[in-house]
Specification:
By secondary structure, the protein is mainly beta. Helix content is 8%, strand content 35%. The chain is built from three helices and 28 strands. The protein has helices at residues 3-14, 34-48, 60-65; strands at 98-100, 115-120, 126-131, 135-140, 148-153, 161-164, 170-174, 181-185, 190-194, 208-210, 216-220, 225-230, 236-241, 246-251, 257-262, 266-271, 276-282, 289-294, 300-305, 310-314, 325-327, 336-339, 345-349, 357-361, 366-367, 381-386, 392-397, 402-407. The strands form seven sheets. A four-stranded antiparallel β-sheet has the order 1-28-27-26, with no helix packed on it. It has a four-stranded antiparallel β-sheet with strand order 2-3-4-5. A four-stranded antiparallel β-sheet has the order 6-7-8-9, with no helix packed on it. Strand 2 (115-120) and strand 3 (126-131) form a beta hairpin. Helix 1 runs parallel beside helix 2. It is found in: Nucleus, Nucleolus. InterPro entries: Utp18, WD40/YVTN_repeat-like_dom_sf, WD40_repeat_dom_sf, WD40_rpt. This is U3 small nucleolar RNA-associated protein 18 homolog. Its main location: nucleus. Keywords: Nucleus, Repeat, rRNA processing, WD repeat.
Length: 413
């Protein structure tokens, strides 16, 4: 298999399409060098992961972390393209089944003393880790070795925010010290510098998100500006404007609506077809809005403030809505909010205090009492993400760590 055929194979797997058998076979294939075949296999596995039929390793590290009786070993059979989650027993409130695994960045420490971003790949068992050193790493997620597949250095560019594109073929990296940003193509193995003209008024790229429909990149600017770029070409489209600085953005799962939250405590709802604000309201009791998240089923909007309060709103909201639940477990500024993909867990984080993270059981609106414990020692958490089917939880902190946890209720990656 030559290079072009290998890339075609990767693209088909990442797009979820079936590979067909070759109509003919070159006799020279039988004479292929074993080392060359090994390198091609490593490249393939590096992008799309091992196929479902791959055998589970029985090395001692797995036996130490998971008992032989654990049914969640089945999760590790699936490290290639992801299967859909099967509907099973509802998640119970009170205590959550959670296990600490080896760090995601076990095989690399190149992201710096402060790891700012951690994110799971949308279709394969890969994770992106990035930090203030200006280096981003792609690792294969298995919970044990978490092998580094690639490390990319962006010169004089401290990474504050990094996200995969929706199709998973690229990732975008931004910095608070730069209005320009970088894009890395996983299929071609090359990075691209994306210049941003000073006329649009963008001064930094440390707080942005991708629309779930794969069309837009939305970035928080200064003076209430929200800059929109095309996700495909990375070109600037337009700038939206709200009162006060925009501190957080989130999209509905179809990308048709965007919510923004600002320093004045106002939440704006935007129609992304007309690019106009169709509704705005004050977050109840909020002085300064800092973080926003929307559940994957579009039923709940979570808003975090500088006082540590998280308000949970049932959608659609009225003109002057009251929270469905107010969560008071954090005492300092809410820096990150994130729902898992099945919308039954809300992670709430403050990066101003050690171990300031709570997991909310959304159906009952109660916090799980057994995480974190005093022995978890998660430090000051900068970023949090759930794997596509909820099997893993990733955290980045200010101690050079990208922590990895197994959520045992969820049987798929």
């Amino acid at each position: 298999m030559n290079k072009s055929e290998t890339v075609d194979c990767l693209e088909k797997n990442m797009n979820g399409k079936k590979n067909f058998k070759r109509a003919w076979r070159d006799e020279d294939d039988k004479k292929s060098n074993k080392e060359q075949r090994k390198l091609l296999k490593q490249k393939y596995v590096g992008i799309v992961g091992k196929p479902k039929w791959a055998e589970i390793s029985t090395d001692q590290s797995k036996k130490v972390l998971l008992d032989d009786e654990d049914e969640d070993l089945d999760l590790l059979k699936y490290s290639g393209n992801l299967a859909r989650t099967k509907k099973g027993v509802n998640l119970a409130k009170g205590l959550i089944g959670i296990k600490k695994l080896h760090n995601l960045n076990l095989s690399t420490s190149s992201c710096g003393k402060i790891v700012k971003s951690v994110e799971f790949h949308p279709t394969s068992s890969l994770a992106l880790i990035a930090g203030i050193s200006g280096r981003a790493s792609i690792v294969q997620v298995d919970g044990f070795k978490n092998d580094k597949l690639q490390s990319i250095k962006f010169q004089k560019f401290a990474i504050d925010c990094a996200h995969f594109t929706v199709d998973g073929k690229q990732f975008v990296a931004g910095s608070r010290t730069q209005r320009n940003f970088y894009c890395y193509d996983l299929m071609e193995g090359r990075s691209m510098f994306v210049p941003v003209h000073h006329n649009i008024g963008q001064t930094r790229m440390d707080n942005f998100c991708m629309s779930p429909d794969g069309k837009l990149i939305a970035s928080c600017g200064k003076y209430g500006e929200i800059h929109l770029f095309t996700a495909k070409s990375k070109e600037w489209i337009t700038t939206l404007k709200m009162n006060g600085a925009a501190n957080s953005l989130t999209f509905t799962n179809d990308g048709k609506r965007m919510y923004s939250f600002g320093e004045n405590g106002e939440i704006y709802e935007w129609d992304m077809n007309s690019r106009t604000c169709i509704k705005k309201f004050m977050d109840d009791g909020c002085l300064q809005g800092t973080s926003l998240a929307l559940s994957g089923d579009n039923q709940y909007l979570a808003a975090g403030s500088s006082s540590g309060v998280v308000n949970l709103y049932k959608l659609p909201c009225d003109v002057n809505p009251k929270p469905d639940k107010t969560i008071l477990n954090l005492l300092t500024t809410v820096s990150k909010l994130s729902f898992n993909k099945s919308s039954d867990i809300l992670a709430m984080v403050s990066n101003q205090k050690n171990d300031a993270i709570k997991l909310l059981h959304v159906p009952s609106k109660t916090v799980f009492s057994n995480f974190p414990t005093t022995s978890d020692n998660v430090g000051k958490v900068n970023c949090i993400d759930f794997s596509p089917n909820g099997g893993y939880l990733g955290l980045s902190n200010n101690k050079s760590e990208a922590l990895l946890y197994r959520l045992t209720h969820f049987k798929n990656y």
